[in-house]
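#random but structural
TW: two for the price of one
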Amino acid sequence: MDIVILLLKTIALRPYVFVFLAAFLFAAVRLIGWRRTWRFWLISWFTAFVCEYSSTRTGIPFGWYFYNGSTVGQELYFSNVPFMDSISFSFLLYAAYCVALCLLLPTERGSSLCVFRLKRLRVESEARTGWPVFLLTAFLFAFIDMVIDPVAVRGDRWFLGKIYYYPDPGVHFGVPFANYVGWAVVGMLSLALYFPLERRLPMPSFPVSPTSNLLLGVGLYYGVLAFNLGVTFWIGEWFMGFSGLLMHLPVLAVLLFRVIDLRQAPSSSYPSGIRSEEFV
């Protein structure tokens, strides 16, 4: 009962985290199905927790940092690690995975969405679990933390609170470079455990466009990015905010070029019998 009460307190204290978590569950179930979603969440959460537990005791893989326990009794902890912190890794990794798929999968002309035409993504098992997607996902996962962690370490200036600190602050706005290496390690370990399961699970089939469902995950990635940049500007860290914005704009530009078909739409639709490929 105490755990349930602490979980409810955690939701009340960190509603934004659970909004992102709910968005992840909705987007992932639509794209990859429930069986894959809960496995992805469990693997990535457990991997992140183990790595955080290790790093606060050995410095591996994130480098040395410590949770100060300032919110003990106000939110749920597993050992010395806040629950909300570890679950954030799960939805961020999924969001990075969707961005990587949109950047790497082959495209072809697709169907209209409002005033835009979205390109169709050709998705196959080998393509969505191959080395290019594996490495790019891990990079994008660490890349978004280069916006998140600098503002999180300043949590005493906004509603996160001062919940952790680095004994030896790094050159990137007070964050050690080892922290970003740790994020990449968590991403690679999680995907290395998940991808073999992904290949063995039976193929589900959804009568929906793969591109539109992938864009739900992409929206989660840039929603989290926008939230953290917004907080960064709100606390008056303008240089840090513009630095993060300029870092991510090139990726966003390439992504838009990849998924939006700017050519003139044909006068007729696809020939009968041809249907949008599904993500299965």
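TW: number two ↓
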Amino acid sequence: MRIALFTETFLPKVDGIVTRLRHTVDYLQRHGNQVLVIAPEGGITEHKGAKVYGVTGFPLPLYPELKVALPRPAIGYALEQFRPDIIHVVNPAVLGLSGIFYSKVLKIPLVASYHTHLPQYLQHYGLGMLEGLLWELLKGAHNQAELNLCTSTAMVEELSGHGIERVDLWQRGVDTELFHPDLASVEMRSRLSQNHPESPLLLYVGRLSAEKEIERIKPILQAIPGARLALVGDGPHRQNLEKHFAGTNTYFVGYLMGKELGSAFASADAFIFPSRTETLGLVLLEAMAAGCPVIAARSGGIPDIVTDGVNGYLFEPTADIQEAINATVRLLQEQQEVTQIRKNARQEAENWGWAAATRQLQDYYQKVIGNRE
């Protein structure tokens, strides 16, 4: 198959969407497909044998890390040269609209996928009054596709409930070799705890942005004597968070990649994830693969991954943070229980390799192409 993949974000940006796309492109290319990635320009022209067509963009005012690339006629020329069998638009917002347009003009089957819960993000940027309008725009875009994919059952239900049609599940995936309990190290634990490896070590990995609600970790940190918190990642909310956590045992690590990131997960006592806007929460699966116990909000796609008391802990996101504090204290005290939680978390992650997730996507593509023929 020849697959044209439109995405609003790609390398060198680091996030869960890019992680999924990296593995997807790699698998598709290795199994005899040809992929053309059309994304905001990021300085790369190839990934795992796939050509990357970069479109000049400008930083989003509320989120400078994210580039907005506007549709342009040259994209149509690139598509005509590539001659795709199918177009896949990831998070159709701006650049993705050109993928929808050219699928109609060139009569190419269209698949769309939903990875970022934008309507909920609006609440965190003071734009909640636009939520209804955004759902209507999303419905208009997604309903152009022959198939709409979501990464959790909660999002399948939510999109269907807002009038988006032909919705199905694209299963989760994780690299169980890169994220592994064997990567735990005293050196990494000392680094993350700023030379206090004997102290309880809490970890957050992900974007430092308002919608992640990282501020809610502070009372958990303060409730545990001597605890340290490592925040791995970066983003537009970092300065606000530095002020919020001033005077606490919090270390802003910045980005970690590859085995360093795997070692960070494996070396921590608990992974705290308070976000209520996750369509899946891929980073939770990475923590679980590394055997790091997860404490997360019962929201969005997270309950698809975490079974409370079995392979992690869930707390009610609307409740007082005390429930999360209790879960964290319990995790740090009950050594026998946490050993089983770590084991169960790893076993759950082992069920979800990237190969199976991308084989499923390939089957979806073939079905859509077959239906069109």
